[in-house]
Every structure is written in C-alpha cells, then in structure tokens.
Design brief:
It is a single chain. The two termini are 28 Å apart. This protein is of the alpha+beta class and 172 residues long. The longest helix is centred in the middle third of the chain and has 13 residues, at 85-97. The chain has helices at 85-97, 153-156, 159-167, and strands at 22-26, 31-35, 40-46, 53-61, 67-74, 102-112, 117-126, 131-140, 143-151, 169-170.
Length: 172
C-alpha cells in the first residue's frame, strides 16, 4: 500500500506561541486541534495501491519551518479492516521514513480516545538527524487521521509539539 503524506512542509508563517493557540475544527473531517494560528487547508487526490485517494490536510508552519499538521483520508473499506491495520500503519510509517529516514525511539500501538480507536505512534529522523517527524495515526471507520509535528529534535520533543498532539480530538 502506498503511504499517504502530502503537503507537510509549506511556506513559513510568523507564529505566536502555542499558548496563543487557535482551535481549528473541521466539520467535514470531524476533528479538532489547537494550532498556533489559522492553518492552511488543502485537498489533493493522490494515487495509491488501493486507488486514488482524496487527502485533506491542515498545516501551520512557524517561521523556522517547524510544522503542525493534521490530515484525513477516506480509504476503501478493506484497507481499514482490523486484519489489515498493521499493513496500513506500516505503509504510512514507511512513507514517512522514505529512503533516508529511520524510526527513533519507541514505535507503539495505541488506543485513541474514549472509543479506544486503533492507532500507532512513532518518530522518524531524516536528513542525517536535522529533521524529526513525530507522528500519530488513528483509524475511525474508513477514515485515517494523521497528526504530526515536524522540525528539530528540540521542537518535536518540546512542549508546543506535545501540547498540539494532545489537543487533537475526533468530533461527531
């Protein structure tokens, strides 16, 4: 399965501290998260092993390039069946890693939110340690959510990144 990851690094913006966050809610995406400011929202059709997929992405980039991202994609039913989730999560991880990346730290299976939805968390190091991507993937029904912070090791393990990841929630 071809992994999905589009539009993560966008043009830089001037950013207030996360303490001055802005709640972003996607009615179509059925999620909410606290970005440091209004995110740029895009949609793109991406070819994959399971057919063309519509990927919806909300991103916010700091002036230093540190990025906050939430995306969602509706997959064909078989791809998100419980027996296929390991393959799906592995494909997403491998896509984030690319050829030059490696998983650092613990990669773990998670149960997300009050409904204990299946998910996975991992951190990838790229560009010889210059970039880190802290990643969370959650599946609800056929929809796959990807939440990430991208930047230096200090940024991705820092308070702003941790706070952003913690504010992600699924809505009705």
């Amino acid at each position: 399965m071809r992994p999905i990851l589009v539009g993560i690094i966008l043009a830089a913006y001037t950013t207030p501290a996360l303490a001055d966050h802005e709640r972003y809610t996607s009615d179509d995406g059925k999620f909410a998260a606290d970005f440091p400011g209004a995110p740029k929202v895009t949609a793109k059709t991406t070819p994959s092993a399971v057919g063309n997929l519509q990927v919806h992405v909300a991103t916010y980039a700091n002036s230093d390039g540190s990025t906050f991202m939430v995306s969602y994609t509706d997959f064909p039913d078989p791809a998100t069946k419980p027996d296929n989730l390991g393959t799906l999560f592995d494909g997403i991880r491998d896509g984030v890693k690319g050829r030059d990346g490696k998983v650092v730290g613990e990669e773990k299976t998670i149960k997300f939110g009050p409904n204990k939805l299946p998910g996975r968390e991992f951190t990838v190091e790229k560009d010889k340690g210059k970039q880190r991507i802290r990643y969370r993937v959650v599946v609800r029904d056929r929809r796959v959510y990807q939440v990430a912070v991208i930047g230096s090791q200090d940024f991705t393990s820092g308070n702003d990144a941790t706070a952003f990841l913690a504010t992600f929630e699924l809505t009705k």
